[in-house]
Structures are given as C-alpha cells and as structure tokens.
Amino acid sequence: MKRSSSKPGAAVALSVFGLLAVMVAMWGTGIWINTTTSLPPGLYRQTGPGTAVEKGDFALACLPRGQWHREPPWSLRCADRAMPILKKIAALPNDQVEITAFGIRVNGQAIPNSKRLPTQVSTATSGSVPAGMVWLLSDYAPASYDSRYFGPVPLTAVQATVRPLWVFESFPGDMQ
C-alpha cells in the first residue's frame, strides 16, 4: 500500500499557525476585532492610552470584578484575564447623568438606545459623575451591558481609546 504524500494535518497546523501569527501581529499594532453588538462589528485601531479620554471616544475597558454580569471570555488584555469591553465614553467627571424610564440623559441630552431592559438588574443611579470615573455606554445597541446597569467605572479601567478602521453597519445576515 502506497502512502499519500499529502498531509492534511500539516495544512491544518499551518493554517492555525498563520491565523495565530495574524492575531499576534494585529494585537501588536493595536488592531482590535469587534464581534460584539455594543458597537458596529469590524476592525478598530488603538489611538491612545486610556488616561487621555474625551466624551464620545470609544474605550476599551477592563471592568472591575464587581461589575461583571457574567464571567467574561478569557484574555491577556486585563489584569484578571478578562476580556475588555468596548463602549463609548458617554460622561466624564462632573457630568450630570440622569436615569429615566425612557433612557439615559447626560447633561440634559438624551442618549439614543439607552433605555434599561427590565430583565437586567441595575445598581446605577442618577447624579454627578465622580472625579476619576467615567460612564461607558452604547448608543448603538439597546441591549448593551454597560454603565446603565453598573454605573461609572474608574478611569484607570480604561485601557485604550480606539477608532473604527472598517466596520459593518450590522452583522452580515442580520435581519433587523
């Protein structure tokens, strides 16, 4: 019996190695792939450190354990190995956040898609954002898990700011 010279195992291993190499290269250059529904899915590029933030920036943040709503996916990005969240910075220190039955208002301005879901438990309250804290919110996805449920997060939780490079308006095949 003659052995075949093709080695399917080698092709699979090479493909996996190539994918890992691309992922490491993207990580090293500050490219992020967003597959969540909090912001448009696609590629984002890191633009700054987490300490230099402005309202409207997209932030990658490592939530403190007490603010997790479920065990996050594993990652090397956060100190506790949790996957960082990608959200928009909606409010900075001294901004007034008001939580209403219709959604979140920041300094009197309504934020789209920010009405809390009745099925989610919330510890967030209205008031002035304390010094050293920020509000992370998705105005893209009504079902996003963000500060509308857990309140402000320490500015030190923000690891980086990012900007979209290439995004889909919605997930391919989404029928919404």
Can you walk me through this structure?
There is one protein chain. It contains two helices and eleven strands, in the order αβββββββββαββ. With 176 residues, the protein is α+β, with helices and mostly antiparallel strands. It has a single domain, classed as Ribbon (Umud Fragment, subunit A), CATH 2.10.109. The strands form two sheets. It has a seven-stranded antiparallel beta sheet. It has a four-stranded antiparallel beta sheet with strand order 7-6-5-8, with no helix packed on it.
Q: What is the overall shape?
A: elongated
CATH architectural arrangement: Ribbon
State the fourth-level CATH superfamily.
Answer: Umud Fragment, subunit A
Q: Taking strands numbered 1, 2, ... along the chain, how are they ordered across the largest sheet?
A: 1-2-11-3-4-9-10
Query: Averaging pLDDT over every residue, what do you get?
Result: 80
Distance between the termini: 56 Å
Q: What is the CATH T-level topology?
A: Umud Fragment, subunit A
From the alpha-carbon coordinates, what is the Rg to the nearest angstrom?
20 Å
Number of domains: 1
CATH class: Mainly Beta
- Uncertain regions spanning at least 5 consecutive residues: 171-176
